[in-house]
């Protein structure tokens, strides 16, 4: 699972602005994100 976070960090500059917002949230709150479902993530970010 850690490889996902490393890849996300390494490719952050290749993402669109919206994707970068989501990626930064994921990188700042990895444990919280892993315990969420997609609906929770959408509500928290938006």
What would you note in describing this structure?
The protein has 46 residues and is an all-alpha fold. It has one domain (4-45). The chain contains 4 helices and no strands. The mean pLDDT is 82.
What would you call the quaternary organization? single chain
Q: State Rg.
A: 10 Å
Task: Write down how many β-strands occur, each being a DSSP E stretch of 2 or more residues.
Answer: 0
Question: Shape, please?
Answer: flat
Report the average pLDDT across residues. 82
Distance between the termini: 25 Å
Strand content: under 5%
How does the helix and strand content classify structurally? mainly alpha
- Biggest sheet architecture: none
Number of helices: 4
H and E order? HHHH
Helix content: over 70%
The residue ranges in which pLDDT falls below 50 over 5 or more consecutive positions are none
Total domains, how many?
A: 1
What is the secondary structure topology, with strand pairs?
Elements: H1 2-10, H2 17-28, H3 30-34, H4 38-45
Summarize the structure.
Helices cover 74% and strands 0% of the residues. By secondary structure, the chain is mainly alpha-helical.
């Amino acid at each position: 699972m850690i490889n996902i976070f490393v890849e996300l960090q390494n490719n952050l500059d290749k993402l669109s602005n919206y994707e970068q917002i989501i990626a930064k949230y994921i990188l700042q709150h990895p444990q919280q994100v892993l315990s969420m479902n997609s609906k929770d993530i959408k509500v928290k970010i938006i």
